[in-house]
Amino acid sequence: MKLICQLLFLFGFLSLSMFVTPAPASAQLITFPKQELIDYTVQNPFDRMPDGRPQVPDDLIERARDLSSEEVWAVLQDKGYNNQYADGFQVLHPGKMLVGRAFTVQFMPVREDVDKVAQGKAKQTLGKHLFNQTAIDMLQPGDVLVVDLFGKKVGGTIVGDNLFFYVNQATHGGGLVVDGSVRDLNGISEIDMPAYFRSVDPTPIGNVMLTGINVPIRIGNVTVMPGDLVVGDREGVYFVPPQFVQEVLDKADETHIHDEWTKKKFAEGKYKSSEIYGSPSDPKLKQEYEEYLKKRLDEIHKQRSK
Amino acid sequence: MKLICQLLFLFGFLSLSMFVTPAPASAQLITFPKQELIDYTVQNPFDRMPDGRPQVPDDLIERARDLSSEEVWAVLQDKGYNNQYADGFQVLHPGKMLVGRAFTVQFMPVREDVDKVAQGKAKQTLGKHLFNQTAIDMLQPGDVLVVDLFGKKVGGTIVGDNLFFYVNQATHGGGLVVDGSVRDLNGISEIDMPAYFRSVDPTPIGNVMLTGINVPIRIGNVTVMPGDLVVGDREGVYFVPPQFVQEVLDKADETHIHDEWTKKKFAEGKYKSSEIYGSPSDPKLKQEYEEYLKKRLDEIHKQRSK
Amino acid sequence: MKLICQLLFLFGFLSLSMFVTPAPASAQLITFPKQELIDYTVQNPFDRMPDGRPQVPDDLIERARDLSSEEVWAVLQDKGYNNQYADGFQVLHPGKMLVGRAFTVQFMPVREDVDKVAQGKAKQTLGKHLFNQTAIDMLQPGDVLVVDLFGKKVGGTIVGDNLFFYVNQATHGGGLVVDGSVRDLNGISEIDMPAYFRSVDPTPIGNVMLTGINVPIRIGNVTVMPGDLVVGDREGVYFVPPQFVQEVLDKADETHIHDEWTKKKFAEGKYKSSEIYGSPSDPKLKQEYEEYLKKRLDEIHKQRSK
Amino acid sequence: MKLICQLLFLFGFLSLSMFVTPAPASAQLITFPKQELIDYTVQNPFDRMPDGRPQVPDDLIERARDLSSEEVWAVLQDKGYNNQYADGFQVLHPGKMLVGRAFTVQFMPVREDVDKVAQGKAKQTLGKHLFNQTAIDMLQPGDVLVVDLFGKKVGGTIVGDNLFFYVNQATHGGGLVVDGSVRDLNGISEIDMPAYFRSVDPTPIGNVMLTGINVPIRIGNVTVMPGDLVVGDREGVYFVPPQFVQEVLDKADETHIHDEWTKKKFAEGKYKSSEIYGSPSDPKLKQEYEEYLKKRLDEIHKQRSK
Amino acid sequence: MKLICQLLFLFGFLSLSMFVTPAPASAQLITFPKQELIDYTVQNPFDRMPDGRPQVPDDLIERARDLSSEEVWAVLQDKGYNNQYADGFQVLHPGKMLVGRAFTVQFMPVREDVDKVAQGKAKQTLGKHLFNQTAIDMLQPGDVLVVDLFGKKVGGTIVGDNLFFYVNQATHGGGLVVDGSVRDLNGISEIDMPAYFRSVDPTPIGNVMLTGINVPIRIGNVTVMPGDLVVGDREGVYFVPPQFVQEVLDKADETHIHDEWTKKKFAEGKYKSSEIYGSPSDPKLKQEYEEYLKKRLDEIHKQRSK
Amino acid sequence: MKLICQLLFLFGFLSLSMFVTPAPASAQLITFPKQELIDYTVQNPFDRMPDGRPQVPDDLIERARDLSSEEVWAVLQDKGYNNQYADGFQVLHPGKMLVGRAFTVQFMPVREDVDKVAQGKAKQTLGKHLFNQTAIDMLQPGDVLVVDLFGKKVGGTIVGDNLFFYVNQATHGGGLVVDGSVRDLNGISEIDMPAYFRSVDPTPIGNVMLTGINVPIRIGNVTVMPGDLVVGDREGVYFVPPQFVQEVLDKADETHIHDEWTKKKFAEGKYKSSEIYGSPSDPKLKQEYEEYLKKRLDEIHKQRSK
Lengths: 306, 306, 306, 306, 306, 306
Hints:
The structure is a homohexamer of 306-residue chains. In chain A, 58% of the residues are buried. Residues 1-25 of chain A have low confidence and may be disordered. In chain A, helix 8 packs across helix 10 (283-305). Chain A starts with 33 loop residues before the first helix and ends with a helix. With 306 residues, chain A is of the alpha/beta class. Chain A is built from ten helices and eleven strands. In chain A, 36% of the residues lie in helices and 19% in strands. In chain A, strands 1, 2, 3, 4, 5, 6, 7, 10 and 11 form a nine-stranded mixed sheet that branches. Chains in contact: A-B, A-C, A-F, B-C, B-D, C-E, D-E, D-F, E-F. The A-C interface holds A 68-74, 77-78, 85, 87, 94-95, 233-236, 238, 255, 258-259, 262-263, 266-267, 269-275, 277-278, 281-282 and C 1-6, 8, 13-16, 18-20, 128, 133-134, 136-137, 160-163, 165-166, 169-170, 183-187, 189, 200-203.
């Protein structure tokens, strides 16, 4: 679907040389310099992207495809992080997990005096106007585009099917979370990338200004930091601070085995639920479980080390 | 599901000779004589149905099956028609487009003194009581039944599976839009006709009176005129005034080609999104696009003229 | 998903000998002794379960798999039972009917002084703490677990995938209705048991106390009695008092035949809807229908008596 | 507050000679000729206004100032009129009763093709454009302006403080009920006329077209007929068909006396509530009440006949 | 307003001898025998009413008139009682504190088979039908009537102005909290008793059955026990377990003095807020405060001991 | 009401020397340096505060007390500023105008890793922890405290009655707008400062972190800039960019006179509404109005220049 010309006055765009390097995020109203980003994500145990974001490694991202909201919850609540989960979205492909690194974008209601200044700065530093594609053009493989459009429906459509197609290409199927809307749902439905949005509307994005790229944003009750690991299932989306990723994944291995064993025992039909679950009440069963757990963990680790 | 007898006192019905011709719409509380309908749809460029409704031609209806909400939006907002879209419905078959001519029906909360007069008039002019089937019996192939039941859930069920089956037969799969509810969802789900409704309830229609057939009605924020082209996708429903149908369809051809080309370029992986979309920034790419557009339009027109 | 240990202080659990017989329901805040249950369901025409609940026979439960909400509505409204239907649920498997005997459970917001007394009583009478699994362990084949968690989302999750798996085993696929939430939706989706819930959340059940097992509870606008026949389709859930089950099923046989015949006539394309439906207006058609009805009923009865 | 010029293109206005007689209601999209109005309100026992509306007499309107919603409910539900009550409004002056004859106005979402035709007709028949003041200029003493603006907030503001002032003058304090909004709440609050509205907004009315004057309209779950007696208290608004006005008022006399006596007995502190209310259980008390009722009714009638 | 006769079939009533002693609560569907009530409120430090409810002393009830929601919150959250507060009510007299002992009543949706049994039991034990006045007749001075009508609006009206007048008399101005509605708001507004309700409707109570008197009930997120101290201000209602009443009141004395002193210091205009509040940062100010606190507490205690 | 100690770990506080000068706003997660503020409010025609905010002069603030939402709307929509109005608040004192300069504060959901860094920075630069009083201590006479607490109710209480008292003192009655809640409503109601909030709750502020002081924030659909003129009436709140203040006030003078004249003419009872309003249709009346306008404007200007 074509972005309609009449609306473009809000953002405009110019020809520019190809493959721009990620722009210094200084043209927007809200800025969050690379050093600030590094300071505020100091617990990150991994490398960083060129733009300063923590870079959760690709192999951990792959492992995260087996997570569920509950497995993330188990570790994060234990750490006292109770504000990392957002739900209430329409889920585009309920059976497809969302996993990737948060690339955050913030919009605010347009206000001409402010926008004029921002656009002036953008022209100077970027050589072009600020608009949604300014951020979209910066996406990297493994990114999930996370957008604060403050729940806007009409004119809160971050992408239609063309840009959704582009995001899929650029992020290698990373995904989209928008506290706002999308358009062209018919077209989008045919593209196999996970997406979480509040609503759908035929209007293009408008009456807003791009105010931040890779700044801290709020999605529901979550403060999302650039580089958070984004994990979405049928229920909702978790934003996992990088320092907890390894632990979340390791605990999830145990949970998967626990669930495997629990269901196996239930399937035998000999036990009441409380004899087996949360954990076996009979010491012999407990031992059986612990041996099973050890054996299966070993198998998993061997397989992974190949 | 049988319409339960106890409720029928509201509407009742009588034996009548077969194949009644469309009744003069004068028995209802709100009337909109054929001449008024013609006057108020004076911009209609097509023929008219015997009841006076604009008759968008069958071949255009077929072409409209490829439309999306965004393509209709693009033309209508350009004309200043911003009140032609309704959403917030449950969509029965999300992958199936709704297309057809609006056949409008209006209900209001029952009020015995008024209903009694209307029923008296109906008996005189129609030889039978007014009830939902009075309107349903008038449906023609290509019609979409569009019903204002003011969002009513309990007793706001325009049809169950039997009448839904009939509507499908009578309209040749045209479809249903109701600002109200349906019943027998299990049965309805098995019938391959598009339908948009607010809710589902086991009660039959009741505590309402039929107040208008093919009168102007309101669905959400839309004033729907009899004969409007109804177009529904996964997002919602557009009611297109007949005078804009041709332009909507022609512009959509271009958009389809634009999207085709845009995605093809994105798939090459060489461009940032803003270099290609909304329109190519590089003059050479622009020319490439324009040649592609011309070629594909020619192909489409040739194919259509066969 | 493991029930997280930190939350267990609310309920706790102890080792106990296997296969406990259904506990006397006297440990909970709200009690409903077996004799009371029998008194208040005095119109039950069937046998009773050992716990006193009416036992709708298995063959009627099987026949009930062909019911729809509308068919239950038809009989119950005729009897003046207008408060037996609840909707507004998320339906786990929309194409799969829910049928079974109501096993009711009630929770209330936790209040430590009250809970402490209840837990003390539970230890004495049951030898263990009260928690959700206390009720789940009592489920029998053919039961539907019906839970009043007063619409709670966070901490209102009656089961995750492990316990959902257990409920499926224990009830032989009976099902779940909860005015509250579930967790582990990804895992639950893979288990082929019908379920109706208000929402989904990653938290385990918490901040509540189990206050009643097989007591009268309220789900939406329904007073549910233990042993009611639970019937759920795509629309919602009916709770049928046992004394009406036979009549509901017999009337439904007629309705199925009526719908069969009606659609067959509509498919012939010769009639307006009101000539055939609700009932045929032409005496000859009426007779045709009545003969068809008689013939088909005979066939059904023969087949069933085999 | 000035109606802002930019918005006026929707309605426009022209100089016209003073004191126009009520216009024939034929310029709007929805028409309801005087004869139709008379036919559909055939049970009206009173005279009629020049425009055909039933004219509930002034003395009955005065007596209606003592009514409450419950007293109207008592008679109307007895007659089977269950759809005459609307609530959910903001009530401007909660302590001030709303009483008068319904003057109904209907708006629908603007649609240029339709509006153009209507405006053309209006110029011919009225010599001016159609807009909200077209209806407001027709108001008579004793009228209540009842407006269907389909719940619209932004641009759904039927009046600001200037026109509210005018309505107060023209109707002699009759009042306003709008399923829409008002503006200038600060100014309106200082004017002592009852008003019921859904919301408040600073925008002037816009993006709508006037589609009917003194036609049947829907307010919430009520079909309002022109000339209905409008009665509003702290709770909501009743629209009383003229044929029931006398009975409502007479029954209310009895209820007032009943309440007077009941509270007097309660104040004595000697009785349990059920000994006195609904009606006295002790035959002696019953007789006491009946004598009191008779005496007080006589007093009232005497006073009224003065 | 008279309770309309047609509705009374639900409850009915009979003549009965005057001044019945509080009925054994055994006629209702849900029972909570006196011994259970005593067991579950074992921490009660005060005397008990004849019906077993904890009897918070009259002088403490008087002192509680100076409480605010925040002062109750301060103690209860400290004890881990986070589920004792309900809000979202319409507050009848926002400036008037609600204070008293909880007298709880529960209703559930009517179900004829169950209601018939309950009514039969009621006739045997009470000599009359069960209906809302059964409970109302039992009210004692100092009680607050707390009613679970599950949020019902239409037919969920626990009282109109006559019974509200009676409740005021019987409880000596105690008050009303209903998770449901009231009727006759005009009349009720003139009676100076605090009341908290969800909505207002002209219908009398109906389509429900009285299922419990002085049983544990749920109001919003609170499990209310009979005899709880009910405290309501402009914000909402706290249900205070009797064992915490003394501490709540004593802490509130300190808070009142703290606030007095804080505002006095702020009024001097010499300090930033954080220098004084939560507690003074300067040791000299801290001492000044502590001396002030001691002096004022002494004064209060002296005055109280008079 | 005392801020409860257990919650204070979130913010903490330290003794500090009196009368700190406004802190450099660099300790928070989101920063907006003074130069940025100046750049983005470049159209400000007035002086600036020491912190860089535009300083709408005191006499214009005084004149703004006579404004209404509609008068601000009239100018701002004309300039294309359609996103400057927020409503849906509880208004503390509906009859009291809110006028002052925006002092903005932003909170986000707490996240320990981020908060820890921010608190570390705050200790270094401010010598104390960041918490709500950090911002409150900076308030100046004429300020309105405008707070983004993202609609939070529980734990979203920016102030209780003690701090509300302080804000009143520090701002000289300026006022409060919070997209969140307040506590101690009983106490707050007695303080004569305008306040707009979403809800009320007994909990103190918690589970949030202070992320910005005098940064751009979003309130509803408005981008609020520090130093905007805040104008609130019974309907809602306008945030007026400083560059439009003079024009808004001057146009409002004319509107006041226009309304004065219009009502005067209506009060004469000789005109239909459309003859006088929006503007007089009769040229003679038009002239009369224009002379009246001129005369009254002269009077106003004379009075003001005194």
